[in-house]
Amino acid sequence: MGTRLFPFVLAATVFVLDRITKAFIKGHLSPSDTVTVIPGFFNIVHSENPGIAFGMLASAPSFWRDLFLIAFSLSVLVFISTLLLQPERTAGHGWFLKAGLALILGGAFGNLYDRIVNKTVTDFIEVHAQISGSSYYFPAFNVADSAITVGACLLLLDMWRTRDRRGHAAEARR
Q: What would the 3-class secondary structure string for 126-162 be?
């Protein structure tokens, strides 16, 4: 597989995994169900989120919220696809950049699909912890959200590595 095609195959893989997992959750769990996987730490739930991460914008007027989120997602998809289709823009970067962009592309497309078809995004992974008698819950998320997060971390790593390389090159020129 060519290096130019790799990001799109990775993005498609994320999208397919996201669709399969969300279809499974919707087909097997009602919104009130909780399946404990690791007691006190990890559950599978069925949550429909009309907003964005952490439920932000969930109470905004639905027409404007949906319009904004769909437009933003489409903009991200076009921007990332343009970067990936123009190799000169990613020249000098390693696989961190391409993989990061691919994961964000696949995740954004997965959540966009949900938002267009269902008007909500299906979340199902719930992580929580009991620390010193207090309960801490991380809002439910899904495969697409995970891919976007890992992709963003890879972009940060790429920025750090590229900056480090540029710094060494500048020192060598002195």
A: EEEEEECCEEEEEEEECHHHHHHHHHHHHHHHHHHHH
Question: Quick one: pLDDT at residue 132?
Answer: 83
Question: Are 11 and 105 within 8 A, CB to CB?
Answer: yes
CB 104 within 8 Å of CB 83: no
Q: What does the pLDDT look like over 2-19, one tens digit per residue?
A: 677 899 999 999 999 999
Decide if 114 is catalytic: no
Q: Which residues, including other chains, have CB under 8 Å from residue 88's CB and lie 6 or more apart?
A: none
Are residues 22 and 122 in contact, defined by beta-carbon separation less than 8 angstroms?
yes
Q: What is the DSSP letter of 53?
A: G
105: how many CB neighbours lie within 10 A of its CB?
Answer: 27
User: What span, in angstroms and rounded, lies between the C-alpha atoms of 2 and 136?
Assistant: 44
Query: Which residue of the set 18, 66, 114, 145 is catalytic?
Result: 145
Q: Identify whether 145 is a catalytic site residue.
A: yes
Q: Is 2 left (phi over 0), alpha (psi -120 to 50) or beta?
A: beta
Enumerate the domain spans of the chain: 6-173
Check 18, 114, 123, 158 and give the catalytic one. Answer: 123
Report the distance separating Cα 139 and Cα 49, nearest Å: 10
* Residue indicated by tokens 């090159």: 169
